[in-house]
Design goal:
Elements lengths: L28 E5 L8 E5 L5 E7 L2 E6 L4 E5 L5 E5 L6 E7 L2 E6 L3 E5 L6 E4 L7 E7 L3 E6 L4 E5 L9
Antiparallel strand pairs: 1-2, 3-4, 4-5, 5-6, 7-8, 8-9, 9-10, 11-12, 12-13
Length: about 160
């Protein structure tokens, strides 16, 4: 059983690596409790220059989004930052997985779709009505964004950029 302190966001486990406790609430860091007792196995990763505001997992990579506008890609076996994805002009507040894509939402009113094999931004979704601060991906190819203006928007993630009506 994993040791949990305070409010921790839900996080899915991955690739036989037991690092399932991620704490994005520390300024610019997150912790991974590797052995479940909150002590000896704890590891803190540094890299963001502002609060970590989003986390997701893709295969053996941990992705963290920050108020510093960056998305960092961490290797879950070496615990090193392998790359930094840039493009958002405001903080990254949500990350999700859709089909074979990473989806990010930022304070800059943008939703970006990233290729996790090239780590390039494939496209920016059109028609975002507000500042997206929640993302969910459903049915393998539908991106759902919850916006600060109270709206919920849907896009197909298979070459269709306009919101689904």
């Amino acid at each position: 059983m994993m040791h949990v302190e305070g409010a921790i966001p839900r996080c899915k486990s991955f690739d036989s690596n037991p690092a399932a406790l991620l704490d994005p609430f520390r300024y610019g860091t997150f912790k991974a409790d590797l052995n479940g007792n909150g002590a000896a196995g704890e590891r803190v990763l540094y890299g963001h220059t502002a609060p970590v505001t989003a986390l997701t997992v893709f295969n053996s990579k941990i992705l963290s989004g920050g108020a510093d506008t960056a998305i960092r890609v961490w290797n879950s076996y070496t615990w090193k930052c392998e790359r930094v994805l840039t493009g958002h002009k405001g903080g990254v507040f949500a990350l999700s997985i859709s089909h074979d894509s990473i989806v990010s939402a930022g304070w800059d009113r943008s939703i970006r779709v990233w290729n996790p094999f090239t780590w390039q931004c494939d496209r920016e979704l059109a028609g975002v009505s507000g500042v997206p601060n929640a993302l969910c991906c459903a049915f393998e190819n539908v991106i759902v964004a919850g916006n600060r203006d109270g709206s919920i928007q849907f896009w197909k993630n298979m070459g269709h950029e306009d919101p689904v009506t």
